[in-house]
Amino acid sequence: MSNPADLLTLIAQGESETVEFKRSVAELEQVVETIVALANTHGGLVLIGVGPKDEVVGVDVGQVTGERIANRITGNTDPVIYPSVQIVEVAGRKVFMIAVPESDNKPHLTAGRAFVRVGVTTVQMRRDEYERLLLLRRQSPFDRREALDATLEDIAEDKVRWYLARAARERNIPVDPALPTVENLKRLELARKRDGRLVLTVAALLFFGKQPRHFAPHSMIRLARFQGTTPSNFIDRLDLAGTLPEMIDEAERFVLRNTRVAAKVTGFERREITEYPYAAVREAIANAVAHRDYDREDVGVRVSIFGDRIEVQSPGRLPAPLTLDTLGEEYALRNRVIAELLFNIRYIERWNTGILRMRQLMRQHGLPEPVFQEVGQTFRVTFTGPGEHILDLIPEAGVTDLRALGLNERQVQALALMVNEGKELSNRQYCDLFGVTYTTAFRDLSELVKTGQARKIGSGRASRYGA
Question: Which of 251, 303, 322, 333 could be disulfide-bonded to 318 (CB atoms 3.0-4.6 Å)?
Answer without folding.
Answer: 322
